[in-house]
Amino acid sequence: MAWAGPGAVASGLTAAWWWQLRDWAPGATEVTVPWTRSRRCPPDVVMRRGNLDLVDLVLVRGLPVTALPLTVLDAAAALGNDSGRPLVDRALQQRVSFGQLHAAYCRSFGRHGTPWLGRVLRQAADGACSQAERVTHRLLREARIDGWVVNHLVVLSGLEYWIDLAFVERRLAIEIDGWAWHSDVERFARDRRRQNALVLAGWTVLRFTWHDLTSRPQVVVAQIMTALRS
Q1: % helix / strand / coil in the chain, to the nearest 5?
Q2: Which among 59, 80, 119, 194 is most buried, taking Cβ atoms within 10 Å?
Q3: 152, 167 contact by CB (below 8 A)
């Protein structure tokens, strides 16, 4: 990126690949340069102009790139609804805090996709860890099912277990298998150990996938209601 001059940083999907948020590199290199920069860019480069805050400029393995929170936002905006929302959810679970994302959003207001990102962040602020969990919350509210809490802590034999959504008095645990990160081997094993411990302690555990929530939501609601009546 030497041709771009001082202040130029890799951004967007290029920065996302450099931060290892994505498994494949974009076809064209994306670069953000200061507003005053007027030079032409190579044909395989997408150049955007904008004056970034110093906190949004970092070095990653020797390359100037946008900081992780801004990279998440830019990449999500570029990917759109189907892939951008899961990327934000995955980053919130594994890499950044909501406060960091919101601060980056406020600093970069006016960049590409900020109205859509604002809606995504408002949804993320409701305490759900993933888009799949937010869908579950909506289904329960629409069915007028109450008495549940989010991210409930249970301590069994000195070990802490978090339940995605719990009806505590009924000892009913709802576990949501949302997006790609639930297929991680370590997470899979940990989830199963937690489920076994809860069942042995007298909890009923229902698990639902993203496909369940979006393709047959009426079945999800019916099974939860049946468990609550049991």
Answers
A1: 50, 20, 30
A2: 194
A3: no
Q: Is the dihedral of CA 99, 61, 13, 6 positive or negative?
A: positive
Predicted confidence at residue 195, as pLDDT, reads 92
Assigned architecture for domain 131-229:
3-Layer(aba) Sandwich (3.40)
Give yes or no for a contact between 164 and 177, defined as CB atoms under 8 angstroms apart: no
Distance of CA 188 to the CA centre of its chain: 18
Interval 168-193 mean pLDDT: 74
How far is it, in rounded angstroms, from Cα 229 to Cα 35?
A: 62
The model carries a pTM of: 0.62
Return the structure tokens found at 187.
């997470």
Alpha-carbon radius of gyration of the chain: 21
Instruction: Give the mean model confidence (pLDDT) for residues 17-43.
Output: 82
| pLDDT (0 to 100) of residue 130 | 67
Averaged pLDDT for residues 35-51? 78
Beta carbons within 8 Å of 77's beta carbon, 6+ residues apart: 84, 111, 112, 113, 114, 116, 117
Question: What is the average pLDDT value for the chain, to the nearest integer?
Answer: 85
Average pLDDT over residues 112-126: 78
> According to CATH, where is 3.40.960.10 located in the chain?
131-229
* Cα–Cα dist 166/143, whole Å: 16
